[in-house]
Amino acid sequence: MSKTILIVDDSASIRQVVSITLKGAGYDVIEGCDGRDALSKLDGRKIHLIVSDVNMPNMDGLSFVKAAKLLPAYKFTPVIMLTTEASDAMKQQGQASGAKAWMVKPFQPAQMLTAVSKLILP
């Protein structure tokens, strides 16, 4: 059975690139255009991994991750932050909110797939 990954980014082009990368590796993909939209997709279905941007309208990535982690079904879902933010302070905030990995845009598809395969839940 294929694993499902939720991609959260306000950039449609980024979502498309990540989606193509992940679908090409056999993953199912759900997309959210910001944190609030992504939270609405967390409806109890099994999501094996979340890839989220940080800077988004309506609800930013760190707030989204914190909110997702409060939901029992997603408490242990691993999160990769995919962002233009590269500062250590932001990375620490990401870790504090529950993110397991931090990738800086633009990313290499191979790098993304390696991180996903390491983190994805069985």
UniProtKB/TrEMBL annotation:
<dbReference type="Pfam" id="PF00072">
    <property type="entry name" value="Response_reg"/>
</dbReference>
<feature type="modified residue" description="4-aspartylphosphate">
    <location>
        <position position="53"/>
    </location>
</feature>
<protein>
    <submittedName>
        <fullName>Chemotaxis protein CheY</fullName>
    </submittedName>
</protein>
<keyword id="KW-0597">Phosphoprotein</keyword>
<dbReference type="InterPro" id="IPR001789">
    <property type="entry name" value="Sig_transdc_resp-reg_receiver"/>
</dbReference>
<dbReference type="GO" id="GO:0000160">
    <property type="term" value="P:phosphorelay signal transduction system"/>
</dbReference>
<dbReference type="InterPro" id="IPR050595">
    <property type="entry name" value="Bact_response_regulator"/>
</dbReference>
<feature type="domain" description="Response regulatory">
    <location>
        <begin position="4"/>
        <end position="120"/>
    </location>
</feature>
<dbReference type="InterPro" id="IPR011006">
    <property type="entry name" value="CheY-like_superfamily"/>
</dbReference>
